[in-house]
Design a protein that fits this description.
The chain is of the alpha/beta class. The protein has a 7-stranded mixed β-sheet, sandwiched between helices. The chain has a 4-stranded antiparallel β-sheet with strand order 13-14-17-16, with helices on one face. α3 runs antiparallel to α11.
Length: 410
Amino acid sequence: MNFTLEAIRQQFPALQQRIDDQPVYFFDGPGGSQVPHSVLSAMTDYLGRYNSNLGGAFFSSYETVSVMAQARESVQALLNAPSSDNIVFGANMTSLTFQLSRAISRNWTENDEVVVTALDHYSNVSSWQQAAEDKGATVHQARVNESDCTLDYTHLLSLINHNTKLVAVTYASNTTGSLVDVKKVIDAAHQVGAMVYVDAVHYAPHGLLDVQQLECDFLACSAYKFFGPHVGIAYVAPQWLQALSPYKVEPATNIGPGRFETGTQSFEALSGVVAAVEYLAQLGESTLTLRERLQQSFLQYQQHEATLSRYFLSKVKTQSKITVFGISDEDRVAERTPTFAIQIEGTTPADVAAVLGKQQMCVWNGHFYAIGLCQQLGVLDQGGVIRIGFMHYNSVQEIDQLFIALEPFL
């Protein structure tokens, strides 16, 4: 099946609505994507017919067990995990990361070191800073290259040594869209025996993940960023699945991923996760495996997103008042996601977002929890940046409308 934008857009009820008799424009994908009919139907079907818990000797509990297993298998395919047992679910990525950080850091000492980056959302910084503080360990933060908002690998690699216990790194900046060569970081960390925790929340809707190729120890993402419900997802590598000692309720299972899953999961949301992964795979040939269908689909999504990125950057080049923080070369769109951090001379990010909001254009302004990045760029005290993010359901025509709406500032 070939990518057809109109066929994609028809699957999203949010994209069909009008507010105050105006069409809506969702340029806020980095903060959370819209959701297709199939995901909504899966969630309401489970909640309306099978709402139950695990372990009962009756039909609705059997269905819940099946939903849980299907969700793990779907995410296994999405991440290319070696087993569905490597997939852990939770309320959201931040909660899961804080929770896992406690198990990971149990045996840290005051001689140990942790490396975080200024490119990261602080869910992948604060969790490790606080875990290190509890143990008296030292935290180092790698800088970014301010010219294009890419990670300063030279600085990061210089911070890794034989005292390093963990490196926490993002796959892609949720603010500037900059991609990270995660494999390079993982290889360097593993040479000194350090673990690597990858934040793939922003990357997951834009590129197909492969934890086996990366050889990462942990990877986290969120289904609500890839057209699903609010569910946190963590990959735990096989060697750590039983080796870590999680904080858990005593009678709860101590075998497999369940040992990291505190309390009752949102089973209706897990139904939505299954549907979201199936949505992502829809452009692949039906005779192929789920993973193979995902591979075929993502190639087409990325082609469309690259077109959007190039078009947006070409429009920006004609506007002298717009500053782009990040990769702005149209020939380098493969090094970024279609997420753009900008400022407009003579106004504030908050004022721009408010004016666009009145025209039913959804954009975010601020620091997006990437405090280290905004501090280094010197924009934290200026109200941060305007973030404009495209998903594969966005169109070139929407970008034209965005620039028409921005004309009063330009």
